[in-house]
Amino acid sequence: MTCDEAIKLMDGYLDGELDPIANQTIEQHLRECQKCDEAYKTHSALIRSIGKATPYYKAPSGLRERIQASLREEIAERSPRSVSRNIPSLFPSLIQSKQSERRAVLFGTQWNWLALAAAIVLAAIIAFNLAPRLRRPGADQFLATQLIASHVRSLMANHLTDVASSDQHTVKPWLDAKLDFAPVVVDLSSEGFPLVGGRLDYLDNRPVAALVYQRRKHFINLFVWPAESGSVSADKRITRQGYQLLHWVDSDFNYWAVSDVSDNDLQAFKQVFEKQLPRR
Ligand SMILES: [Zn+2]
């Protein structure tokens, strides 16, 4: 993890929104990098002091009563009949007390239930609409970090391929034998993206296939793993640290192409790859 990535993930880390692996990665970086560790300490001290210094006001009881009273009036105006009928049977002991008190107790109860119901509905709306949106960017960013790291490692450590072959009929059986799924392997030499080979990799907490293609002097790692059934996702393009990432999903597989070729080249790669897929 680079300092830039650590800083980007810092807020999510401080708010406890990262997954365990991202947490570990950032913690390791903080142990090793004094600069980021200091940024982390400053951030968390700031959060603590804001938490302590922010005044917390309880609404004065008069305000609460005024809101409840206006709600009671509102409800009473809408359903005067059902109310008068229900009071004696629901609250027989209240009949002796003054009428205003009776109304207050009855509608006080209704008001609490209304407030509770409203709070539940509001919480559900927030959870459904907001939570996935808050979560996704962090998850994608972390996966992008893993994908770039894997791409760079494959070029650096002389471990571009486990099976070096431009023959799809060599690469595919090799991968099929090692994985619990059978990725589609196509050679795209005639389109200017010759197949170089295949590799096993580990991403997003699972073994994945990495198909290696070449574009002039550049390499494209195409990471493939099974898509969750019914998962629909628009194409995603991420540019980071000079690398292009392109993500798409078809009916069976998740694809992430990572390379230092231009964005246009990567889009073209995706198009010719999809065109060569066997029709099912
Ligand atoms: Zn750092």
The CATH class of the domain at 160-276, by name, is Alpha Beta
SS element count, helices: 8
Poorly predicted residue ranges: 84-98
**In one word, what is the shape?**
elongated
Q: Please give the share of residues in helix.
A: 55-70%
CATH superfamily of the domain at 160-276: MucB/RseB, C-terminal domain
Short précis:
This protein has helices at residues 3-14, 20-32, 34-53, 61-78, 80-90, 99-156, 168-178, 263-276; strands at 163-164, 195-203, 206-215, 218-226, 236-240, 243-249, 253-259. With 280 residues, it is an alpha+beta fold. The structure holds zinc ion (ZN).
How is this structure best described in words?
The structure is a single chain. The protein has 280 residues and is an alpha+beta fold. Among the domains are: 3-56; 160-276, Phosphorylase Kinase, domain 1. It is built from eight helices and seven strands, in the order ααααααβαββββββα. It has helices spanning 3-14, 20-32, 34-53, 61-78, 80-90, 99-156, 168-178, 263-276; strands spanning 163-164, 195-203, 206-215, 218-226, 236-240, 243-249, 253-259. It has a seven-stranded antiparallel beta sheet, with helices on both faces. Strand 6 (243-249) and strand 7 form a beta hairpin. Helix 1 packs across helix 2 (20-32) and helix 1 runs parallel beside helix 3 (34-53). The protein is elongated, with a radius of gyration of 30 Å. The two termini are 41 Å apart. Residues 84-98 have low confidence and may be disordered. Residues 3, 6, 29, 33, 35-36 line the site of zinc ion (ZN).
